[in-house]
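In keeping with the milestone schedule agreed at the kick-off meeting, the structural modelling team has produced records for the first pair of proteins. Each record is given below as a sequence line and a structure-token line. The laboratory manager (R.T.) confirmed that both were archived under the project's standard naming scheme.
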Amino acid sequence: MVAWIISRLVVLIFGTLYPAYSSYKAVKSKDIKEYVKWMMYWIIFALFTTAETFTDIFLCWFPFYYELKIAFVAWLLSPYTKGSSLLYRKFVHPTLSSKEKEIDDCLVQAKDRSYDALVHFGKRGLNVAATAAVMAASKGQGALSERLRSFSMQDLSTIRGDGAPAPSGPAPPGPGRASGKHGQPKMSRSASESAGSSVCTCCFTCRTWKDGRALLQMPLLTFVNGSH
């Protein structure tokens, strides 16, 4: 773990940041010799980074793997060994020079195919998006029309219910009918009680008035009978 951290720091500082600053100085001073030197280094470092991606997975178990990486970066940068210039002149430049035409043709074909694939998938994506938008719009319009139709039907039913006359016939049987039957005796009982109380009051008054009248007529009848 410690060796991995040290190797990453060495590659980051001495393998990337320091060469980047030196390349800036070479471009600023317009020194062709330094410019070519750092251009060769960046080509070798790009190949090293590509190889490092796979070696970190498959060769990390190798003893002194990270120490060898640190030593390799130092060898590339050292002005005494000039490792990057040596690797470029001995291996990279001859290989690229012999395969340059094939590499250029492959790059052109890959560029054309990638452009055609991008256009094809772009058209398909636009067609799918347009179809989805049309379907969503049609579904939304249908749902809106159904919603408005339901609101209009509710309004019509409300208007008809308010303007329709009350039914004159007997109510159909149902739970409300049953509740009406159960509630009818209570209403008739209360009505009869109120009616009975009024009749009883009237009869009492009538009887009192008739009894008083009879009492007044009794002496008259007695007097008449006695005179006869």
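The second protein of the pair:
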Amino acid sequence: MVEAWYMDDSAEDQRKPHRCEPGRPVSLDQLQQLGVFYWKLDANKYEDDPELEKIRKEKNYCWMDIITICKDKLPNYEEKIKMFYEEHLHLDDEIRYILDGSGYFDVRDKEDKWIRIFMEKGDMITLPAGIYHRFTLDETNYVKAMRLFVGEPVWTAYNRPADHFEIRGQYLQFLTQRA
């Protein structure tokens, strides 16, 4: 089961857990209130997993690729790690399925506080278009993930502030309807 918590304000290494003291865990229900959805799948059979195929069909995730993030596999590794950790949003949902390794997705809550979501092998997550978020590896410095898209992939990240985008306004409207 996925684990999520409110982050501390430390400027220490981004790859550390950064748990508030005392801890403030975040439930799947709380994540869903932000539009974040989660599945636990069997990553050992991702190539022919009927559960993954069912989700892909239901959500219309018709395009996918696999990315390995580690020093030996990702060109311009240091630059990419910094880029992934910049707070940003996308105009489309971000769907990631961890096939091996682990890392963190950080998302903003309704009060603009950071929630850290620990992702490991078998975890699949959808971050809604318009949510401010970022990604980092954990201290293992390795993750292999499937990236899924509805239609052709769009790789553009818009760093904060990006409140002028219509999708950001739609996301904020979604949050107020959940209140």
